[in-house]
Amino acid sequence: MISKRTRNWILALLFLGWSLGNIDRYIMNYAVLSITKDLHLSASTTGLLLSSFFAGYAIMQMPGGWLADRFGPRKVLLAAVISWSIFTGLTGAAWSLTSMVIIRFLFGIGEGGFQPASSKIISLTFPKAERGRAMSIMLSSGGIITLIIPIASATLLTTIGWRTTFIIIGAVGAIIAALYWYFIKFPENNTEDKMNHIAVSSQKGIFRSLFKIPMIWNLIIAYFCIYAVNWGLAAWIPTYLVKNRGLDLMSLGWVQTIPGLTMLVGIYLGGYIIDKLPKGRERLAGSFSCACIGILLYLMFTASSVTSFITYQAIVNLFIAFVITLLPAIILKQLPSSVTGTAMGIANTGGQLAGFVTPMAIGFIVDAFNGSFNAAFWMLIGFAIVCIVALLTLSDKKVDLLKQKEQEAFALDA
């Protein structure tokens, strides 16, 4: 059994790595204002650039989860951090739209294994009763980054420029990879590893079994919808506020710290609430949150002032953060630890496909409507409605059968 001190140290390192990944993803949404000028991009090509990372990231989700279950999460974690650090640094050397898209796509491939591997590590090191809060702590890095990245981006981009900024982020990634290699280690031949080895002996069997569970399909849809809203807003709100609401880069940085703060509060509060929810109530809490998201999105784009817009954005981030924390917690709590890497990879594929599709779709929509974002907001409201349906129909049917098969395999091997 891993000690509490070791568990907390591992969680702190995962938090650190996830923070760096979020820095790269979120700073691109601000850097793209400068990149667009340097590379002479339209709204459509800007959307393509913003989506290229998520194409690679989505492709790697299921293989990343499979690799974490098959060969161990530590190896996948190290490979992810090393490769994403390389391509983050190379982002600063891009010379054209094509080179930038290719580099960001490969960066997505590199980072794609991180979340399934880190989720697997949480399931192996934390008791079930603590996994929701552990996941919320790791995911809270996104909230912290959204809080500090607007000001940090404005400062860095106006002083050292976007190219040097990405090179520095890549160098920091190399340091984090070294910390992972040295500190994240597991005892050999423990019970969890034994069960993991049994469960992954037939990889086709794992995928087939998981895809037969209705919950997995609901989670794929829910992941897609909530991340469509999240990344649609994150990718385009900086551009929207500058071009449609008249803010300069520094003012943008300051006002966006408020939604960043509420995102952080939502993640921490969500982790606490999720661990307290009775089994089966997750779907009701998630559905209510998605309904609030839809209403608030409408209020955002119809807001008469920047102050009102930021107020609604701050509130909507609370509910988005809760749903984003809820979905992986459902996997960690209701599925066997031996398959959480693969299951997380499958479900998160939906979320990252949304990250690929939505920024690009919004770019085309904005061009089609002569710079108006109204139709894009209506699209995001539609995703919130679909997410409600996916969560309301969430069922744990066949999950118990999967657990029973794992227990039987473990008993036979013993």
Characterization of the model:
The chain has a single domain (4-413), classed as Growth Hormone, Chain: A. The relative contact order is 0.16. It is an all-alpha fold. Helix 2 (43-71) runs parallel beside helix 5 (114-125), helix 3 packs antiparallel against helix 7 and helix 12 (257-276) packs parallel to helix 14 (306-334). It contains 17 helices and no strands. The radius of gyration is 21 Å and the shape is globular.
Given helix and strand content, the structural type is mainly alpha
Low-confidence stretches: 198-203, 408-412
Percent in strands = under 5%
Mean of residue pLDDT? 84
Tell me the major beta sheet.
Answer: none
> Which CATH-level-2 architecture?
Up-down Bundle
Structurally, the number of domains stands at 1
Summarize this structure briefly.
This protein has 414 residues and is mainly α. Helices cover 85% and strands 0% of the residues. InterPro entries: MFS, MFS_dom, MFS_Na/Anion_cotransporter, MFS_trans_sf, Sugar_P_transporter.
Features:
414 residues, mainly alpha, Growth Hormone, Chain: A, 17 helices, globular, disordered C terminus
Note the topology.
Layout: H1 4-39, H2 43-71, H3 73-91, H4 97-111, H5 114-125, H6 128-159, H7 161-183, H8 191-199, H9 203-211, H10 214-243, H11 249-255, H12 257-276, H13 282-301, H14 306-334, H15 340-368, H16 374-392, H17 399-413
Helix pairs in contact: 1-5, 1-6, 1-7, 1-10, 2-3, 2-4, 2-5, 2-15, 3-4, 3-5, 3-7, 5-15, 6-11, 6-12, 6-14, 8-17, 10-14, 10-15, 10-16, 12-14, 13-14, 13-16
